[in-house]
Design brief:
By secondary structure, the protein is mostly helical.
């Protein structure tokens, strides 16, 4: 007889061997491999979510091993084993003897279940609970609270220039970087006071930040300069630039030679409109950076970037701005900064703006695309990416590609609305940008005076009455009044815009050109030719000093001057101006551009003699083809096309091609009735021209002509009434 311990060992050996299965082997091997990796390859601590995930995997593997180990062998396999052993006569009895009967319990809710299942679930829970104790092989890494001061500071120093229209450049008010917002959300509510202050700033809770700063002021362990700097940055992001400048003055009293603080104070002065202070501060910052060690290259690049932005806004030596931007990019391309950062992207954006201003459109296109690419790599939802898109839209507008410009402007505005709070001035800038493209396309219903007028108080309330964006908004309002045939109201807004521009940027700044040319257009329509010529001449002098004699702004002034001369009946003097404008615009933009079409139209109108009239008509046809290429199938709805058709009809009538003239006037009237207001005098001019053709027929159609003339007279009466309101 065998000893009892031998029998026990044999029993358990048989029990284990019967339960060995592929599932048990695989789960056991997986558990062993998992523990091996944990102890030898994993770091000692990982983020909490990852650590809990590993715990769930461990508990699941433990449960799998348990359930495979306690699983009953398949009865079919047991019977086959007994038959092979010659026990076929009593294998049923033997199987019943060997089969383990699991105890069962009747539990509430769960119903009848086995003790094996309950033990398995408890084992899984215990395994996971053990994993959460300090004895687990992998601990939870302590979360480091990252200070958001670095991205907040970089958001101020990375000055982004935007072009709300073709002539103006402004510094976009600072927007909190998305990286700062993400870091702020990780800061717990029991963090140190100054971290809570920066959290509030990063989450655009500026009033809360001020409240916490007042509380922190009573804490003697916090340095005063830290509190004052936080006040300054909070004011910058809140748009209170004068207040921010005052706080930076206090900060610099404590640390007057710090280049980063000097640069931030310079940016505050730039937004405040104090360009003299900006120049002094940034010059001192540059001097301190250049006298420092080589590792100050990043600060030097930042200061060069800010100075270039100031030069661009002030219209002071665009060549110096371009050189500074280029030098900053060279420094940023070194090994010190990260590959993609806010300053580099802002510098590329600003260089694109400089190129667009000075007429280097290929350079603007290249730099603008690069800037958009950089912003996308930093954050695809950044408001600054939207600003780069707005600049791209304005560059397309300058090129005369209005549909593409509108598409990009709409995309940028949608991005701003998805990332910034309602009423933010940067959103209003995007709306201004869209309004420019809408007016260029003749889609006046999308840019009504009432809609664009709402932009003015937005800028005045958030940025101040003398901020240049106020002038830009006023100019857009004036443009919208012009297209609805209300020149008196347009004049009022152009004059206000000139006042703001002169007060904020100076009487010789290039942005004065926009208001002066707008006034010249108003005076031309009101037949006040001397006033129109005076404004046009003043605009041309400013443009020549800022851009030279071959810039597109000069071409626009030449076209306006030529139109004034033609209105005065001095067509022979106007021809040279049209020729000069055509030469400049073709060199700048190529053969397909609205200014090229306008120059051709002016020359075509002058070619009305018997020997030249065919050439004049050909020029108008060429101008129409330009608009067709630029605008596609929708070109037949553009008001500029209506003007071309009207002028070409006059030539056809003078040539004796009455049927062609009638057809052209019919097309012209159809466009005008779609896009112009009912009291626009252009409608009256077209009806009068149609009546003239009817009277010239043989026999004359006097009744029809009189009906058209009465309609024209009524339109002119309504025009006068509307302008008296």
């Amino acid at each position: 007889m065998e000893p009892i311990f031998v029998s026990v060992i044999k029993f358990w050996l048989r029990w284990v061997l019967r339960r060995i299965s592929p599932g048990l082997l695989i789960s056991g091997a997986a558990l062993a491999l998992f523990l091996l990796v944990l102890y030898w390859m994993m770091p000692e601590a990982v983020p909490g979510l990852a650590q809990r995930g590993l715990g769930l995997v461990f508990a699941a593997l433990v449960g799998a091993v348990y359930f495979y180990a306690t699983r009953d062998p398949d009865l079919h396999e047991i019977m086959l084993a007994h038959m092979r052993q010659g026990q076929h006569l009593d294998f049923g009895k033997q199987v019943r003897a060997d089969q383990h009967v699991h105890k069962k319990l009747d539990l509430p809710v769960l119903g009848e279940t086995t003790v094996r299942s309950i033990v398995g679930v408890c084992l899984i829970l215990v395994s996971f609970a053990w994993w959460l104790t300090p004895f687990a092989p992998v601990a939870v890494a302590q979360r480091e609270i990252e200070d958001v001061s670095v991205p907040l500071t970089s958001g101020i120093l990375a000055v982004v220039l935007v072009s709300p229209d073709a002539e103006l450049v402004v510094a976009q008010p600072p927007t909190v970087p998305m990286a700062a917002q993400r870091l702020a959300k990780r800061i717990p509510n029991d963090a140190p006071p100054m971290l809570l202050v920066r959290k509030a700033i990063a989450l655009s809770q500026y009033d809360l930040a001020r409240q916490r700063l007042e509380e922190a002021a009573s804490d003697e362990s916090i340095e005063r300069i830290e509190i004052e700097l936080a006040h300054a940055q909070n004011s910058m992001y809140a748009g209170a630039f004068a207040e921010a400048a005052e706080w930076y003055e206090k900060v610099l009293e404590r640390d007057p030679d710090n280049p980063t603080l000097l640069a931030q104070a310079a940016v505050a002065g730039l937004h405040e409109g104090d360009f003299r202070k900006t120049q002094q501060l940034i010059s001192q910052a540059l001097k301190n950076c250049r006298s420092a060690k080589p590792e100050e290259a990043f600060r030097l690049a930042t200061c060069l970037h800010i100075q270039a932005a100031a030069f661009t806004i002030m219209a002071y030596r665009y060549d110096l701005a371009e050189n500074n931007n280029r030098r900053a990019q060279q420094l940023w391309s070194g090994d010190l900064p990260p590959e993609h950062h806010e300053g580099k992207a802002a510098g590329l954006n600003n260089q694109a703006v400089v190129f667009a201003l000075t007429g280097n459109l290929p350079g603007a296109r290249s730099m603008g695309d690069w800037a958009v690419d950089e912003w996308e790599k930093i954050d695809e939802r950044s408001p600054r990416l939207a600003s780069a898109l707005a600049n791209e839209a304005m560059r397309l507008h300058i090129e005369g590609r209005y549909f593409q410009s509108q598409e990009v402007a709409d995309r940028g505005l949608a991005m701003l609305r998805n990332t910034l709070p309602i009423g933010h001035p940067v959103i209003a800038m995007g709306m201004d940008n869209v309004a420019v493209t809408d007016l260029a396309l003749g889609e006046y219903e999308r840019a009504t005076p009432a809609d664009v007028k709402a932009l003015v108080p937005t800028f005045e309330g958030s940025l101040g009455r003398q901020y240049p964006m106020v002038a830009a908004a006023m100019n857009i309002v004036a443009d919208s009044y012009l297209v609805v045939a209300l020149p008196d109201k347009a004049r009022s807004y152009y004059e206000q815009a000139l006042g703001v521009t002169e007060a904020s940027l100076g009487a010789k700044h290039p942005y004065m050109i926009t208001g002066l040319m707008g006034l010249a257009e108003v005076f031309l329509r009101q037949e006040q030719y001397e006033q129109a010529r005076s404004n046009c001449e003043q605009a041309r002098q400013i443009a020549e000093k800022a851009f030279g004699e071959r810039h597109a702004a000069i071409a626009r002034c030449m076209l306006m001057d030529a139109r004034i001369l033609m209105a005065e009946g001095k067509g022979h003097e106007a021809r040279g101006l049209f020729d000069g404008a055509l030469e400049i615009t073709k060199k700048r933009f190529g053969d397909v551009h609205p200014l090229v079409a306008d120059s051709l139209a002016g020359l075509g109108a002058l070619d009305d003699g018997p020997r030249t009239i065919a050439g004049g008509i050909a020029r108008f046809e060429e101008a129409l083809k330009i608009y067709e290429q630029l605008l596609g199938p929708g070109y037949e709805r553009h008001p500029a096309v209506a003007r071309l058709l009207f002028s070409m009809a006059k030539l056809q009538a003078k040539r004796g091609e009455v049927d062609k003239a009638r057809q052209l006037l019919a097309r012209c009237l159809q466009i005008q009735q779609q896009v112009l207001v009912p009291y626009d005098p252009q409608l009256a001019d077209t009806l009068t021209a149609q009546a003239k053709l009817l009277r010239a027929e043989k026999p004359p159609k006097t009744a029809e002509a009189e009906a058209l003339e009465k309609r024209a007279e009524k339109i002119r009466e309504n025009y006068v009434k509307e302008n008296r309101r």
